[in-house]
């Protein structure tokens, strides 16, 4: 089910401002790729181009190529809405729909896309919540508001919501940065489990986290202040953390800047 | 009441152990006290006219409302000199006109706000926004005269209830647009993005996520706009003259309303008529008050369901 992502010579703009330049990388199916780098170097921006969320921002546009298996995501015949069904996303701050119960939050993607069969929805809700390691905590209060959960639970609810629509790829933008250490570990375990089914790309500020969860790590950095961000180096996580090719990577992971 | 709560929350923390930090400077304590007094004074001053109006109206008009005939009869066949009769004709007229006004204004106003917040970019959006600003500033008498010019002078139609609704619509649309706009802007962008990321199209995101999230705020805004429009008098005097009898057809003949009833009875200058002025005024206040309660209730209800 999971798909391979290929990014080739990608330039990303906000209006006239070129935020990211010349990114090329490949993400293998059923693997976890971590994006690391200092703030403002364009990690979120690159991530959001992988499911065409970038263009939601006024003036947002890209040049270059992103393919999912062999489909060009930015081909003119490609419907961004369909892309987002295939490539799910979890955001930095947990954002459950405040008007919906836990059950409705998980079912939102299907219900809003017209699935009405209650039995099927209940199945999906249970499967997704189990998949997000949240089922046992919430199974007795599925009709309570999703916003009433703790931050870590809310984030797992958001993950359940994202996997309920059965995407091929899961993008996560600093999913743990608003969470406590225990919830963070719970999410990391979850990422490990999800890897068997999904292709995962995760942005993280936490180097240990990148080392713990990812198979491949991409280090982004600004060319210079005021210049666009770029991909400095991408390799197996092992290699990046033990023996990076670039000096900048080594400086960053050893904490000399950023 | 919220002013009181704000004051409580801004109260300084308990002073135990403050010695370690050298205590609170007397200058700051003094400023704090002064600000407190000024805020209380402003609060009380703002409250005086409100309490005064309410008190006077209840004292002078309360008696009328206790009489069952007030809620059961019209003024049909009652001269200014005589006591008796009721306000049913005016209450009905006000409610019918308000309902139809809302029926026209709410869809237009809400959709305009959705356009401005969710879709509007560039020239067209700026123009629309500017037009709404201008509409907001139009005095009600001007709206009334505009409709009069179109309805009566240009088309040669009669002065009927529906013409009043059109004028009131002109006054209500901008308030609905502005209040709905504020509510839609309060919906965090993250919710829209969360919905898009699930592969939900934009229009569905607006219908199923954005509007439900801000629903109670939109309803409150609509009801407040409606309350304001219900008390408008100029369009009624120009387009919907008073009548003493019950009339429910917006498209034929005259139709009484509470503001025109007040205006009419006031011009009689006789005690029974003056009593009816207070009664009608209190009734109008009561209806608007109930509208506000309804707004709260709808807000609460939608939150519970969620
Ligand atoms: N909505 C936006 N509009 C304009 N510029 C943006 C927007 N979001 C991010 N940027 C710019 O793009 C660059 C990369 O930002 P971002 O991708 O958020 O970095 P990171 O996630 O690595 O911290 C920054 O210079 C930032 O100022
Ligand atoms: Mg970021």
UniProtKB/TrEMBL annotation, chain A:
Pfam families associated with the record: ABC_tran
Matching InterPro entries: AAA+_ATPase (IPR003593), ABC_transporter-like_ATP-bd (IPR003439), ABC_transporter-like_CS (IPR017871), P-loop_NTPase (IPR027417), PstB-like (IPR005670)
SUPFAM superfamilies the record matches: P-loop containing nucleoside triphosphate hydrolases
Membrane-protein topology: Peripheral membrane protein
Span of domain ABC transporter: 5-247
Keywords, sorted A to Z: ATP-binding, Cell membrane, Membrane, Nucleotide-binding, Phosphate transport, Translocase, Transport
Principal subcellular localization: membrane
Location in or out of the cell: Cell inner membrane
Signal peptide start and end residues: none
Family annotation (SMART domains): AAA (SM00382)
GO CC terms in record: plasma membrane
GO molecular function: ATP binding; ATP hydrolysis activity; phosphate transmembrane transporter activity
CDD domains per record: ABC_PstB_phosphate_transporter (cd03260)
A GO biological process held by the record: phosphate ion transmembrane transport
Stored PANTHER family: ABC TRANSPORTER I FAMILY MEMBER 17
Stated role: Part of the ABC transporter complex PstSACB involved in phosphate import. Responsible for energy coupling to the transport system.
Protein name: Phosphate ABC transporter ATP-binding protein
Gene source species: Knoellia aerolata DSM 18566
From TrEMBL, chain B:
InterPro entries, A to Z: MetI-like, MetI-like_sf, Phosphate_PstA, Phosphate_transprt_permease
Keyword Transport: yes
Compartment list: Cell membrane
Biological processes, Gene Ontology terms: phosphate ion transmembrane transport
Predominant subcellular localization, coarse grouping: membrane
Superkingdom to which the source organism belongs: Bacteria
Residue span of region Disordered: 1-22
Keywords: Cell membrane, Membrane, Phosphate transport, Transmembrane, Transmembrane helix, Transport
CC annotations in GO: plasma membrane
Membrane topology: Multi-pass membrane protein
Annotated transmembrane regions: 34-55, 95-116, 128-151, 157-177, 209-230, 277-298
A GO term, aspect molecular function: phosphate transmembrane transporter activity
PROSITE patterns the record matches: ABC_TM1
Function field: Part of the binding-protein-dependent transport system for phosphate; probably responsible for the translocation of the substrate across the membrane.
Family: Belongs to the binding-protein-dependent transport system permease family. CysTW subfamily.
NCBIfam families: 3a0107s02c (TIGR00974)
Record-given protein name: Phosphate transport system permease protein PstA
Organism listed in the record: Knoellia aerolata DSM 18566
